[in-house]
Amino acid sequence: MIIIMEPGTSEDNIQRVVKTLEKHEFRVVLNRGDVMTVIAAIGDKRMFDPRSLGSLEGVREVKIIQEPYKLASREGKAEDTVVKFDNGVKVGGLERPVLIAGPCSVEPEYQGLLDVAYAAKEMGAQFLRGGAFKPRTSPYDFQGLEERALIYLARAKEKTGLLVVTELMDTNDLPMVETYADVIQIGARNMQNFALLKAVGKSKRPVLLKRGGAASIREFLLAAEYIMCNGNDNVILCERGIKSFDSSFTRNVLDLSAIPVIRKLSHLPIIVDPSHATGRRYLIEPMSKAALIAGAHGIMMEVHHDPDNASSDGAQSLSIPQFEDVAKRINKLIGRIDYDNRIQKQELGIE
Ligand code: PEP
Ligand code: MN
Predict the structure, then answer these.
(1) Is the pLDDT assigned to residue 283 strictly greater than 90?
(2) Which long-range contacts (CB under 8 A, 24 or more apart) does 71-77 make?
(3) Ligand 1 atom with least separation from CA of 105
(4) Which of 104, 132, 179, 237 could form a disulfide linkage to 313, CB 3.0–4.6 angstroms apart?
(5) Which atom of ligand 1 sits closest to the CA of residue 300?
(6) pTM here?
(7) What ranges make up the beta strands (E) of 6-145?
(8) Average pLDDT over residues 196-224
(9) How far is CA 195 from CA 29, 186, 237, in A?
């Protein structure tokens, strides 16, 4: 933390800041420049936050120097985190980018889900997604089939071997969701639901954490930090678009630059959800390709057996035949990326 003083501020003002910091056991380093004084404060800010000094007389600005997401940060752990599953699937680092496919919501027609699951398996996906508890903007929209949906997902997993990704919205449902899910999703709307983050931090299941629609990258990584500092290191980040002023053609704006930025700042895997990012099915293929080229560790897309009659998000869901076409082309690209990653692994001596 550094405290930048106003140019020419009085010695009294400088000493007031220094004394306050020392009272809270901060180590203080004074840098007296020709024009202004800069005070570096090193210490534990859990009990006292130096940002409180921001309004003291003579203080121009209080700045954070070290990012507070210590566990999620590359500074703390240089090598990439690879999230591993019992069936050998790996997410992150130089592993082959993964594919997650499935409907927005699990619906009463089980056969529809099964058809999607078989197609996903056939096209090389590793995960089946599907919402059992749906975070809908309107309370009058479809809210999800809850445990029935989880049972359907588990049955589809039994038939196909696909790992199940499903969203948790309430800490009370964690024991139930954990028994059916291989990955617990925390949705964009709950990215800063700290009680939920702490609860999944204590779970043994990997967590897929989606970026909030109005969350900065810093806030996103701090949300991951909540999960990690509660004991769960297996966090997969998911960029799913952020809000902007123009939603005439796309639901959100896919922040592609977040992928390399997050890969630079953090060792955690980062995947992309082009369905929620764009809201339009024709944009899934181009945005998936762009995301993979930008370094995404995987793609999560919505696929429905009958998108035009879906309970939720039909417009951003591919039909099964469309998915098969898109997945073929995406798989070609994934194959090339995987080949490059293998060469890189050989060069690094890790394969
Ligand atoms: C979802 O993936 O089902 C979902 C609701 O997405 P988001 O939280 O990104 O809106
Ligand atoms: Mn959806």
Answers:
(1) yes
(2) 71/225, 71/228, 71/229, 71/233, 72/221, 72/222, 72/224, 72/225, 72/228, 72/235, 72/266, 72/267, 72/268, 73/221, 73/265, 73/266, 73/267, 74/264, 74/265, 74/266, 74/267, 77/267
(3) 3
(4) 104
(5) 2
(6) 0.95
(7) 27-32, 37-42, 59-63, 83-84, 90-91, 98-102, 127-129
(8) 98
(9) 37, 12, 18
Helix (H) or strand (E) holding 277: helix 274-278
How far, in Å, CA of 132 to CA of 168, rounded?
8
Instruction: State residue 313's pLDDT score.
Output: 98
Q: Which residues line ligand 1 (CB under 6 A)?
A: 104, 131, 135, 167, 187-189, 210, 240, 273, 276
Bridge partners, residue 30, by sequence: 39
In single-letter form, the type of residue at position 246 comes to: D
Q: Give the residue, by CA position, lying nearest to ligand 1 atom 3.
A: 104
Is the pLDDT at 63 greater than 90? The verdict is yes
Query: Which residues, chain by chain, have CB under 5 Å from ion ligand 2?
Result: 104, 313
Residue 65: the pLDDT is 85
